[in-house]
Amino acid sequence: MKVPSLRVQSAATVAIIVTAFALVFFYAPLDADQGFIQKIFYLHVPLAICALGGFVVAAVHAIRYLRSRDPVHDARAYVAIHLSVIFGVAVLITGSIWARASWGKWWVWDEPTLVSFLIVFLLYATYYPLRYAIEDRDRQARYASVFAIMAGAFVPLNFAAVRLAEPLVHPRVFATANGGLPGDMRLTFLICLAGMALLWLTLVRFELAAKSASARLARLRRALEGESAPAQRSRIAPAVPPRTVSS
Amino acid sequence: MTAFRAVLAKDLRVELRTLQSIPAMALFAITTFVLFRYGLDRTTLTGSLAAGVLLATLLFAAILAINRLFAAEREEGGFDAMRLAPIDLTAVFAAKAMGLLVYFVILEGIALPIFGVFFLDDWAGLAPLAGVLVLADAGIALTGALVSALAAHSRARELVVPLVLLPLLVPLMVAAANAAEPLLVAGGPSFEGLGSWLAVLALYDMTFAAVGYAVFDFVLED
């Protein structure tokens, strides 16, 4: 399948997200008991699904790195975790806003989904100190891959354990038959999910392209100026080798 | 099998001769009990409070041992010896995890009676609690061996180990605390729900045994 250019993909992302928000505000009906505030669900849940999906994608890239030792996979795993952590911050903030509006408190402990997500987020946030602490590049990539695989295996275990421990307060929208959502809400939700997923993929491509470009620039500088060229700016961001990085 | 036995015997022999980890862990645990007595302003503990104090203390004491797990290999060149030897490096992982398990069992042999003396009115729950703790210890040992190897070559290794290990241990703590709580309630131990929490602990142990088996080779490579 031929991958569309970054410009086309970005345009598509903007189009779908604009459509999604239009649907959220003008098409999706108001929830019977929560009212308007329920609409944050269309932002919060797709962000959460994309963040968790991103962590799994990172684990897959980490496995590919360990098998092939091609630094492109390490770069992809790094960028995937980076963006998923950022999406994770957004999930926690939107979740807090929704909790405050629905239950009157910014944070509730006795609700498994938000707590599980917090733990996963804290775990992946340690990815950066771990990379900073290892100087040798090759070892850094290898250990980061091991971490990504461990953490990927941990995510379902964590959700299962925390869910078992707590009574259910967090709305479990999809647990009932028929997905639990009426038709027009389901359509809006699916378009929001598609928009968020596309946003995640587009941002990953942007970040990989930026890293590739700066790596190429550093290489050219070193070739022109020799040893007096400035060293690579970031100590932990993996250097992407000179080739196309569209996945 | 011989590599596993050799590494385990070496670690246990070194610990027996130098007594680095276990006395430190035991003293740390006892001091932490005292801190909790004053921090919580209580002289007896029951139920979830008792389970929480005990498990948090044992967890932080475990981190002391996990920090030092690969210290000898790092300082004396043991990693090179392991890479050169014609052994399966997974045997090293198993031996290190088993060594940690032995340390934790010894730690609990010392810390549990003292916990009982300090805080518990009724000792009936301690025997089944020891069984729950062995399963939890296996999980901490497996995860700890993996994270310790990961941190062995990093610069701020005493920082990296607790930072990476503690979030990974949260599901284990959830399961262990929920299993331990009914065993320590005021009216005597109750065993309802124990089976399912032990199953979660076993699942956690198996998951990290499998993950460790899969990735440990990559951690120990040059």
Low-confidence stretches of chain B: none
Domain count of chain B: the total is: 1
- Strand content of the residues of chain B, in percent? under 5%
How much is the average pLDDT of chain B?
Answer: 90
Q: Main sheet of chain A?
A: none
Beta strand count of chain B: 0
Q: Roughly how many Å apart are the termini of chain B?
A: 23 Å
Would you kindly provide a written description of the structure presented here, covering whatever features stand out?
The complex is a heterodimer of chains A (247) and B (222). Chain A is an all-alpha fold. Chain A has 7 helices and no strands. The termini of chain A are close together. The model of chain A has no long low-confidence stretch (mean pLDDT 83). Chain B is mainly alpha-helical. Chain B has one domain (2-220). Chains A and B meet through helix 4, helix 5 and helix 6 of A and helix 7, helix 8 and helix 9 of B.
In a few lines, what is going on in this structure?
The complex is a heterodimer of chains A (247) and B (222). Chain A is an all-alpha fold and 247 residues long. Chain A has seven helices and no strands.
Could you list some keywords that capture this structure?
heterodimer; A: 247 residues; mainly alpha; 7 helices; 71% helix; globular; B: 222 residues; 0% strand
